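Appendix B, record 7
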Amino acid sequence: MINDHGICYNRYPCYYKDDAKNCLYDFDDIMDKLSIDYFLVFGSCMAAVRELDFILDDNDIDIAIIGHKDMRHKLILKLKHNGFSIGKTKIINNVIKQVHVFKYGIFLDLFFYDREGDILVSSKEVYNKQYKHFKIPCYVEFYDRMFRIPYPLEEYLRSIYGDKWETITVAEYKGDK
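Structure tokens (predicted):
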């Protein structure tokens, strides 16, 4: 959303659930049309599994896309054509690695990973999670649709949030509390 001063601001999915759901549905429809698989990751994955809802104090929806280097520009154009605004984009060696997009004031963080053996390389030097979490898709029903999530789920969430993944808040994880 753009305020009266021309500054973009974010609407938290947990407070604007209909907008967040519509944003995710619109994204899902585009990905389906392009035949690109993706995963809910980080706080969005934890929220879908643990809360069956958007999680309090998480300010975006996190998406992981593995591979598809040749489709990344086409995806961004398709998102823009379908009403998404394109924000900050990280490009390394002419390859898109991360894009912030938003619609209805809801941010989606798209993380693109390239597989190198059993390691996923992202916009950071090396994503230190093994590819194994993304080999076998697992699904969760979230707002009446099925979404891919990493597997084994608990191992994945523990690798990010530790043993308290079942109770930790995003603010606690980020050190805000």
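Remarks on this record: Strands lie at 39-40, 61-66, 85-92, 95-103, 106-116, 119-121, 127-130, 138-142, 145-149. The two ends are 27 Å apart (CA to CA).
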